[in-house]
Amino acid sequence: MKSLKSLRWIIATLLISYAAEILAAAEDDENDGKSIDEILMSAATRNSVEMLDLFHMMEENKMMAMVELDILLNMTELARYKTNPSRNKRKALRYGQYRWPKSKVPYEITESEFTGRDIEMIQDAFKDWETYTCLEFKQVQSSDANRYPDRIVFKNGDGCYSRLGRVGGPQPIALGRECRRRGIVVHEIGHAIGWIHEHARPDRDEYITINYAQIPLNKHPQYDKVDAGIINDFNVVYDYTSIIHYSGRAFGEGTIITKKPTYQNKIGQRDGLSFRDIKLANLMYGCAAMNKCPEEKQCPGEGYVGKHCKCYCPGSPGKPIEECPITTTTTTTTTRQPVITTTRRPVITTQPPTRVCRDVITTCSTFKQDGQCQRDKARMALYCKLTCELCDEDLNKMCMDFGDACPIFASAGYCSLTGISEFVKAECPKSCKLCEPQLACSQSDFFNSGSIPDLNKLLIFLVVTLIKF
Ligand SMILES: *[C@@H]1O[C@H](CO)[C@@H](O)[C@H](O)[C@H]1NC(C)=O
Ligand SMILES: [Zn+2]
Predict the structure, then answer these.
(1) Does the Cβ of 77 fall within 6 Å of ligand 1?
(2) Are 324 and 298 a contacting pair, CB within 8 Å?
(3) Sign of torsion, CA 347 353 356 360?
(4) Which pLDDT tens digit goes with each residue over 25-73?
(5) Span 33-293 CATH architecture
(6) What is the pTM for the complete model shown?
(7) How many other CB atoms are found less than 10 A from the CB of residue 3?
């Protein structure tokens, strides 16, 4: 009897330690140290590099653009996203119109494309939003399409992406295998409710430096700022720790440098919503008004009025928010986070980008084995220069398109369409007929060049040759 009991005890102990091991392994997977953008890059290049192209022909032959790795825009949206109202004197459109009415977001999961565990993970990501904001996510079935025409549809995909805000009708959040992690899903939901990337904010230059020397030239537009006219930051201060901020690894290494060095390895986190993420969502979706909180209610410091009309302030590690301490006096209740102002003139790099030969993605050796270095030279010169031994190729001189859809986009007239032409030209130099004429080493070229020093050299050469005879 006694031995049986101890045997049970041993088995129980074994089971517990086994379970602990499994949990630890799962934990490791979550904390493999990869940033948001690294995961997006590896998901996009799982089977090919085409998902890194700017332009894509989607279902029903719709032309779409994938900007900043994971935001899918149609051409109207791209032109608006890239617009510069102050320059073009265009009326600014705010993304407010793309909010979900009454903070209610219906979603559908294409169940055949996900495992039970994936589905639990997606629902877990919604919990983050529902715990801290007034956004409500309601799962609907495809048979409910008539009642919920506007909804998010989770589906499998090459790469991982979302549309920006509510666009009308079913809109995808695509989750490739690599992206089936809570933090990534929280990030993509951020785009779907209307968030741009933090590092694309109009005021980002006060907080980060974009190291363009580390980014292939035709990817420079991926690091554009969004014009102040099309977004509203609700006076929430720039946040290095936002879930919508990339690390410095998208399209290159060391591409984003934080002006406060201590934040360099904090950017690109995917643990969850930060305090300012939560505050922004609460303000953007009018959560205080929705909860009928008194309008005049003020919170100390950076605090905001949240659930149950309480004031919430930045929390301690592991907790993004905490109820604000009750202040006895009301004198300094609105101290704002000091805004960092640049006292020095911004450093303008006039030097041409130094050409560093390196791979931009981690899957290059596989592509090389598959013979892609020869088959797809333009893309490989962009992403796998080192592995494909294409270091000497000058991207600016290569008369090549960097995407399959280029001829279609060129013939649709996008090479000269205001708003997006810059983007198109960078991606499609060949189809947009921007290539420099190739200098052939023929005699006629030599004489047509009209370069006097060269003619002198030729004369000297002739004279020397004659003397030798
Ligand atoms: C793009 O989507 C918007 C909704 O965000 C829609 O109004 C517009 O007509 C679409 N444009 C194209 C070219 O499909
Ligand atoms: Zn994103």
Answers:
(1) yes
(2) no
(3) positive
(4) 454 456 678 999 999 999 998 888 888 888 988 888 888 999 999 999 9
(5) 3-Layer(aba) Sandwich (3.40)
(6) 0.81
(7) 7
